[in-house]
Amino acid sequence: MSFVIWLTGPSGAGKTTLANALSERLTEMGLNVEVLDGDGIRSRLYPDLGFSREEREMHNRVVIQMAKLLAKNGIITVVSIISPFRETREYARREIEKFVEVYLKCPLEVRLERDPKGLYSKALKGELEELTGYDGAYEEPANPELILETDRMSVEEEVNAVIEKVRELGLKIQ
User: Fold this and answer.
1) Is 115 exposed, middle or buried (0-12, 13-18, 19+ CB in 10 A)?
2) Whole-angstrom Cα distance, residue 172 to residue 170?
3) Which residues are catalytic?
4) 149 with 111: CB under 8 angstroms?
5) Are 103 and 30 in contact (CB under 8 A)?
6) What angle (nearest 5°) sits at the alpha carbon of residue 7, between those of residues 141 and 54?
7) Quick one: DSSP state of residue 7?
8) Which residues touch 154 (CB under 8 Å, ≥6 apart)?
9) pLDDT tens sequence for the chain (174 residues)
């Protein structure tokens, strides 16, 4: 049995960047790794799915089941998904035996500057409503295994912190 590293945080917090860097490092260590990117899965499996609470929860449940199956089959799974609701993340924790929640905390001002997908720009112009972490809900994790302040750390420092936490938790990693 492997484990799942669940990266959560609002848009622009650095989830995808960290997921890819973490995957690269773990692969270099000779480990079997898969990244499940919430946006990528959504766009490929159901591009017309909306962003209501119910639709978000359904999307998250699909990702949870995919991660659970990968981990069950010995693949370290790095999930990069906003997962804005505590209840959904707690469900993931119950479903996935070895679950490491990593909260990417980043101030709104920095996320506005980064704006990798142009979502904040659209929200500021009134073209997008209910953007998670802006005018839409994002419930910070109550007890994540790790909090990374991504505006204060390099990606390398973030990767090192995650690997250190995984080792500290006694999960199998070199």
Assistant:
1) middle
2) 6
3) 83
4) no
5) no
6) 70
7) E
8) none
9) 699 999 999 988 999 999 999 999 999 999 999 999 987 887 788 777 767 778 888 888 999 999 999 999 999 999 999 999 999 999 999 999 999 999 999 998 998 888 878 878 888 888 877 778 788 889 999 999 999 999 999 999 999 999 999 999 999 775
Burial class, 49, CB count within 10 angstroms (exposed 0-12 / middle 13-18 / buried 19+):
middle
pTM above 0.90, yes or no: yes
Whether residue 77 contacts residue 2, with contact meaning beta carbons closer than 8 Å, is answered with: yes
- Listed in sequence order, the residues at least 6 apart from 74 whose beta carbon sits closer than 8 Å to its beta carbon are 1, 2, 32
Residue 130, sorted as left (phi over 0), alpha (psi -120 to 50) or beta, turns out to be: left
CA dist list (Å): 61 to 10, 20, 96, 142 = 18, 22, 11, 20
The distance in angstroms from the start CA to the end CA of the chain is 15
Structure tokens at 111: 């996320």
Encoded tokens for 20: 């890819």
